[in-house]
From TrEMBL:
<dbReference type="Pfam" id="PF10133">
    <property type="entry name" value="CooT"/>
</dbReference>
<dbReference type="InterPro" id="IPR019300">
    <property type="entry name" value="CooT"/>
</dbReference>
<protein>
    <recommendedName>
        <fullName>RNA-binding protein</fullName>
    </recommendedName>
</protein>
Amino acid sequence: MCEANAYYIEDGDEELIMEAVDTVTPEPEGILLTSIFGDQKLVKASIHSLSLVDHKVYLQKNG
């Protein structure tokens, strides 16, 4: 499978937020992550970067 995992990144350190992320949707309050299992998590963050080869979404905390 080719789903990505979402991480907070800070000072080069990764903190796992969600595994098997299917969609990443910008919302007024932050980023909505939805997994292949239908789980959803709204995080107050912005996209830092994407590593498509490694299937990783890096988010930076807001506030």
